[in-house]
Write a structure and sequence with these properties.
single chain, alpha/beta, 9-stranded mixed beta sheet, 3-stranded antiparallel beta sheet, 23% strand
């Protein structure tokens, strides 16, 4: 079994030291660069022994994932039992995480991911409404048919990508939940690993200005995710408006 790691950069310099141990542990790393300026990452990634894909600007997360998956398929000839692991550039990845993946065979693996609030992933998705679990114990015993999770360190068995492409109309948010929702239709469900990872999630640590910009982009992705379920979409957006207004104590978020 081989593990292909995909990481997407945006206006950040590739740091070899952050991923060297993973590559030494057998991970083939593919770096997709969504940067809007030259960060010199092409040479840095090549010198580190990883594969580099320049996206020619910020094309979004879904587009970058599709490009990386195409490259793996066309150039690296993966086996159906290999895994693709999605890494965020703001995640603290334990060097022995690949060893955990190598012990498994299930189609989708979700580790325990904590952020500044608490348990961030896996989470519950009922009627396409995503909520946090109250505890790790609750997540571990939940019905797999109702579980979803974020991209960060999600491991996907290669055969799950047969006839699947991330929706490039979605720029960033909820492409992970859209992926799992589609897998549910195929009778494929995630498995929760009792393995903990730390995530520096921007929605938790953002400044007010950055949060406002992020929310403006998120609305477009959520509109695609919920499709014709407009009432659910408006409910989710209203809830996020209120949450941001309370967090930053600014009624302008209610407009």
């Amino acid at each position: 079994m081989l593990i292909y790691g995909i990481i997407v950069l945006y206006n950040k310099i590739f740091e070899k030291t952050s991923y060297e141990a993973l590559m030494e542990n057998g991970v083939t790393l593919i770096v997709c660069d969504n940067s809007t300026k030259d960060m010199g990452n092409g040479k840095k990634v090549a010198d580190a022994g990883a594969y580099y894909i320049s996206m020619g600007g910020n094309k979004g997360l879904a587009c970058a994932y599709n490009r990386a998956i195409d490259m793996i398929r066309d150039e690296l000839s993966p086996d159906k039992h290999d895994y693709v692991c999605l890494f965020d550039d703001d995640t603290e990845i334990p060097v022995n995480y690949p060893d955990e993946i190598k012990l498994r065979h299930e189609p989708i693996l979700l580790p325990i991911v904590n952020d500044g609030i608490g348990l961030m992933s896996p989470c519950l998705m009922k009627d396409k409404i995503v909520k946090r679990f109250g505890s790790v114990k609750e997540a571990l015993r939940a019905d797999e048919r109702q579980i979803t999770g974020i991209n960060s360190c999600m491991a996907v068995r290669w055969d799950c990508y047969d006839n699947y492409r991330y929706d490039e109309n979605m720029f960033l948010d909820y492409i992970d939940h859209a992926f799992i929702f589609e897998m549910r239709k195929r009778g494929i469900y995630p498995t929760v690993l009792n393995y903990k990872i730390k995530q520096h999630f921007s929605a938790v640590e953002d400044t007010k200005k950055r949060a406002a910009k992020r929310f403006a982009k998120q609305k477009a992705d959520l509109k695609i995710f919920y499709g014709d379920r407009k009432l659910v979409y408006y409910y989710i957006i209203m809830r996020k408006h209120i949450k941001l207004a309370l967090k930053y104590r600014d009624i302008r978020f209610l407009k």
